[in-house]
Write a structure and sequence with these properties.
- Chains A, B: Homodimer.
- Chains A, B: Pathway: Purine metabolism; IMP biosynthesis via de novo pathway; 5-amino-1-(5-phospho-D-ribosyl)imidazole-4-carboxylate from 5-amino-1-(5-phospho-D-ribosyl)imidazole (N5-CAIR route): step 1/2.
- Chains A, B: It catalyses: 5-amino-1-(5-phospho-beta-D-ribosyl)imidazole + hydrogencarbonate + ATP = 5-carboxyamino-1-(5-phospho-D-ribosyl)imidazole + ADP + phosphate + 2 H(+).
- 2 copies of one chain form a homodimer.
- The first copy, chain A, is α+β, with helices and mostly antiparallel strands and about 375 residues long.
- Chain A has 3 domains: about 90 residues, Rossmann fold (3-Layer(aba) Sandwich); about 60 residues, ATP-grasp fold, A domain (Dna Ligase, domain 1); about 200 residues, D-amino Acid Aminotransferase, Chain A, domain 1 (2-Layer Sandwich).
- Helices cover about 30% and strands about 30% of the residues of chain A.
- In chain A, the strands form 4 sheets. In chain A, strands 10, 11, 12, 13, 14, 15, 16, 18 and 20 form a 9-stranded antiparallel sheet that branches.
- In chain A, strand 12 and strand 13 form a beta hairpin.
- In chain A, helix 1 packs across helix 9, helix 2 runs parallel beside helix 3 and helix 3 runs antiparallel to helix 4.
- The radius of gyration of chain A is 21 Å and the shape is globular.
- Chain A starts with 8 loop residues before the first strand and ends with a strand.
- The relative contact order of chain A is 0.11.
- The model of chain A has no long low-confidence stretch (mean pLDDT about 95).
- At the A-B interface, helix 1, strand 17, helix 10, strand 18 and strand 20 of A face helix 1, strand 17, helix 10, strand 18 and strand 20 of B.
Chain lengths: ~375, ~375
């Protein structure tokens, strides 16, 4: 198959920041790429060969879009899977496959899958709705504290809540959900696994999410994780096992907990490029976005090693600001060696909206960590006054 | 000035591969970018906020394009300078300035400038046309062998010829030209200098052009050059002196000869991102394209150091092939660690047409050099049979 400067067409469902960073790679390789997204202000409106505005959840829209391309992939999980089934049945290449997406899209089914495949994960119970969960609490089948997760359509902390008392239940929506055992952990880790169509498989180094000591929010994604080599090996092996169990093609980001006694428990997965791999654009021999393209087009996988230490800081909208965005002090952080801002292209900021990220690379991890703090303390995503 | 996700508009004159690689950076920063190019199949037709088809040499076209943007830059020197003069006179920011471009555009004037500014360069004589040169030969004011260069519109070896006898003159066009003393040299080197509007200045490491021993064509651009530190320092200082003499803003690629006795002689300059800096995308902390954007927008300059050794191999159309392009063995070279192809997006190949380049990065220069040879021996730019 000739992908380069040819008539071949790759389709991407979703036109957000992940799609935008994928387009940087398809442009580099001159691979024609069509993108479908419901918003005509999507970050992917530029850089695609063709941009289509349309619903990702509408059967006909997704089906017709898929018919126009040779290989179809996603940058967001919430797409019409029935349309993907139909396309796949007709012989269209869809990576990841709708079968895998179905297993992942529902967090209850995802957790069941780990249990069935002997993949270490925390204990969980599934409920068809909140009422079911409340009944289980009444019968002491579930006890406080636990982690509530909505089964579908949650993302980035949305749809996840630590429930310590009946009081915490009052705001929750009446949707399918799971109750998960709360596991005390030392570290939250992630490993990205790449697997191409032919089955070649590679893992990226383990990254570590460093949390703000008070706010309990991820502040930094750090590569490599500052953990023992043995624990890192264990985490990479668990991630490999998850990828093999899913028979997954493309990238699979596996989020894990390192418990107090150095067990590795799988938290959840994302079958696509992931926030925990953004550092790879500057730090790795092969960025996660290039690797995703290589995987789904059955090209040889690239080297997943890092050239230098990498730390990623998310740029999210500051509280109290809504409107046309301004990146306060961006020139100040750009004056520091090894600092690269990525601006996703959303014109309007809102509190906590993901607007971009900043990568810090350095030969020395301690130095990178110091600079990351300087970046974090200076840049602010606010709006025009 | 707020450039990021704002109404600010950067204009680029020229929509070829250099423009395409600049757009990768303006997309990363979400800076609105307009591009003007005469071809509607230009590599920049994708990725720009707006792409305009039109002549770069036509006064009105360039003038009107310039009026629509806030800052104007170039990715090719051959543009209508009168239009840029008019725009600059009206207060438009044009970097590099038309004054600098005028001094560089004509190679005779460029050489005069070095002589006037005590910048080491080989001896030269200017001629209004070929007849003038022939008369000088008759009078022994010029003697064989010498290097003939057409004064304007030459590029990539086009417009340069080593003249060893009267016979070699017969094919030359009747245009303004210079005759340059032939200087035996050990190495052809290049240094890219970045200078922002405020005058902050940084140089990239010295790169070395390695020639094919028989074909006398550049095979590899190697960073860092495998030369003595003292010579490298001298080359960086000469390049700085050239940049300061021109009072240049943006990138200035300075091509130089290292003579047998380790003198550094300036050959010529390019006031923009340059083939000799393509390695920087994968090897440097800051790619030359990002650096050009930083320079002309008066942002702080990024770190010009390398993370790893880098070697660049040009992908030019193979002799004997014209038509829809195929990159033979591209999958084979992509299987090697640290190998990244860049495909410029030209659908049709022709003999010697610049179609792309491949970057090889490695911690170890000797290993990188070995891989570069493997890449060179495998990949071929041919056409569909």
């Amino acid at each position: 198959m000739n992908y380069f400067s040819s008539d071949f067409k790759l389709g991407i469902l979703g036109g957000g920041q992940l799609g935008k960073m994928l387009l940087a790679e398809t442009r580099k390789f001159d691979i024609q790429t069509y993108v479908l997204d419901p918003s005509d202000e999507a970050p992917c409106q530029f850089g695609a060969t063709k941009f289509f505005k349309g619903s990702l959840m509408d059967y006909d829209t997704v089906y017709q879009f898929g018919k126009a391309v040779d290989v179809l992939t996603i940058e967001i999980e919430n797409v019409n899977l029935d349309a993907l089934d139909a396309l796949e049945a007709e012989g269209k290449k869809v990576y990841p496959s709708p079968k895998t997406l179905r297993m992942i899209q529902n967090k209850g089914r995802q957790k069941d899958f780990y249990a069935e495949n002997n993949i270490p994960t925390s204990f969980h119970i599934r409920f068809a709705d909140l009422t079911g969960l409340k009944n289980a609490l009444d019968k002491n089948e579930v006890t406080f504290p636990f982690v509530w997760k909505c089964a579908e359509f949650g993302y980035d902390g949305n749809g996840v809540k630590i429930v310590r008392s009946a009081q915490d239940l009052t705001d929750l929506p009446e949707v399918e959900c799971i109750a998960e055992q709360m596991v005390p952990f030392k570290n939250e880790l992630a490993v990205i696994v790449a697997r191409n169509v032919s089955g070649e498989i590679k893992t990226y180094p383990v990254v570590e999410m460093e949390f703000h000591p008070e706010a309990n929010q991820v502040e930094y994604v750090i590569c490599p994780a500052r953990i023992d080599d043995k624990v890192a090996d264990k985490a990479r092996n668990v991630a490999l096992k998850v990828s093999e169990a899913y028979n997954h093609i493309g990238l699979l980001a596996v989020e894990m907990f390192q418990t107090e006694d150095d067990q590795i428990l799988v938290n959840e997965v994302a079958p696509r490029p992931h926030n925990s791999g953004h550092y790879s654009i500057e730090a790795s021999y092969t960025s996660q976005f290039e690797q995703h393209i290589r995987s789904i087009l059955d090209l040889p996988l690239g080297n997943t090693d890092s050239k230098v230490a990498g730390i990623m800081v998310n740029l999210v909208g500051a509280e109290g600001f809504s409107g046309p965005v301004v990146y306060e002090n961006i020139e100040k952080i750009m004056a520091i060696d090894g600092v690269t801002p990525h601006i996703y292209g959303k014109r309007e900021t809102r509190p906590f909206r993901k607007m971009g990220h900043v990568t810090i690379v350095n030969e020395n991890m301690a130095e990178a960590r110091k600079i990351a703090e300087e970046v974090k303390n200076n840049i602010r995503v606010i709006s025009v006054q």
